[in-house]
């Protein structure tokens, strides 16, 4: 498989706090890879570093073999890395359609074209009926879907999903799982942060476990639930029985 | 389709009415119309950066002042016609706007801090102009009056209606530009920046670049309004065309009308100025009919109270109120249909 994203000994400190201490990561084209770990493990920090919102203190990030370390978020989006935010950030001053159109304008300056592409993606996410709903009247599920739709509209080759299942009920989670699988089949590589283990185990080709800014496990999702260290720091005894 | 046709007809009719207005109204009423349109124009220019991009600037008086002073000084010292001088003033204003904007946006100065910096800028510039004799200091500058047939070439008219037509044209122009912007990538990106800058950047929006573009457009066009004021009044003074007080006045119309909407600033100006005049009339009436004394400034109090009430009951401006009523109406219709 071709390497899409390579992360090389990435370090980030916030004052005296070490958020990441030399993390390596490899994402291959067509993969679904999950990052799990307890709160404060550095998962979201890693996303912010990849997408240019933070600058790493040390280490390099390569995307398609090109060094993108320290580039601005907008340039990274243009290169083809999309992301969602854990706390959804809809543009409340715009309709749902306009929200998605902003993403679609990443690839075209033509508003008509962007509207068409946005409508396609809205259809793909099953949000057609909400097109005219004021953004602040959307349910949590729809907001999460909007967040994905917007990022997907930028035509990314790598999509970073930050806890898109949080706050959803089991039925909604299954819907989201299905959606992510369809996206992967549509040539989008996916890196996701998730706490919903059912989703992680169903979706992932590979799992990475972070703890206190350190990678403590990387590999097969079936074996992660049996790894004693992972059980100790994150999963707890319950999952060791599976 | 039918909707679009009727909208076009409506605006053509409205434009025609405005165009022929000087034939029917004159004197005091025309004066008010000119000031309303002027404030509407300034508000529309400010709206590009303040309303659409959501970067609330309290320094736009500076740009108006730079426009007014540049064209006036170029005319009175070098004899250059303000028709050309106004563009030089606009370029200077744009340069200052880009400079301040670059510093703010490069270092991610947002929200209240951006507001404070623009406020400081306008006060610094006002104080400079008030204390340097070359700029006329606190006395201000008079524009030498020219008589004869060449006066119009020097942006001078002895009647009000040419000024009315000029400001009408300028207002129509800025509305057209805003209209085009709203429907282009720029408009979408500015709104996204206002909605959430981080989310916008994650979608590929170069926030700093687009904010600078909005600042450039806004400061360039608003400066043209400064030259208009100078030529209309034939007199400028720092506290009339720059400084914090005047800058706040520019911002009021867009806020009252509806931030980041095409017609908001114009509607706001049409509500604001008559309200100001009305509170003045009311005060005069009280003063004369009841022989009340010590009422100086009462019109400012009534005006202030009216503004507070408007912001309380129309937090999203006149346009926001319309939209809410429209929404309620649509909902009622739905209920009836069900």
List keywords for this structure.
A: six-stranded mixed sheet; four-stranded antiparallel sheet; 10 helices; 26% strand; B: 338 residues; two-stranded antiparallel ribbon; 1% strand; globular
In short:
Chain A has 242 residues and is α/β, with parallel strands linked by helices. Chain A is built from ten helices and ten strands.
Which structural class is indicated by helix and strand composition of chain B?
mainly alpha
Question: Could you give a short account of the major beta sheet of chain B?
Answer: 2 strands, antiparallel
- In helices, the fraction of residues of chain A equals 25-40%
For the residues shown, what is the average pLDDT of chain B? 89
Strand tally of chain A is 10
State the end-to-end distance of chain A.
Answer: 30 Å
Percentage of β-strand residues of chain A? 25-35%
Q: Number of helical runs of chain A?
A: 10
The major pleated sheet of chain A works out as: 6 strands, mixed
CATH-derived topology of the domain at 1-52 and 188-242 in chain A: Rossmann fold
Written overview of the protein:
The complex is a heterodimer of chains A (242) and B (338). Chain A is α/β, with parallel strands linked by helices and 242 residues long. Helix content of chain A is 38%, strand content 26%. Chain A has a domain at 1-52 and 188-242: P-loop containing nucleotide triphosphate hydrolases (Rossmann fold, 3-Layer(aba) Sandwich), CATH 3.40.50. Chain A is built from 10 helices and 10 strands. In chain A, the strands form 2 sheets. In chain A, strands 6-7-8-3-9-10 form a 6-stranded mixed β-sheet, sandwiched between helices. In chain A, strands 2-1-4-5 form a 4-stranded antiparallel β-sheet, covered by helices on one side. In chain A, β1 (3-14) and β2 form a beta hairpin. In chain A, α3 crosses α4, α3 runs parallel beside α5 (140-153) and α4 (111-124) packs across α5 (140-153). The mean pLDDT of chain A is 91. Chain B has a domain at 25-144 and 154-260. The longest helix of chain B is centred in the middle third of the chain and has 27 residues, at 207-233. Chain B is globular. Classes of the chains: A alpha/beta (242), B mainly alpha (338). The A-B interface holds A 51, 53, 72-74, 77-78, 82-83, 85, 89-94, 98, 101-103, 105-106, 109, 111, 114, 150-151, 153-154 and B 54, 183-185, 188-189, 191-192, 194-196, 198-207, 260.
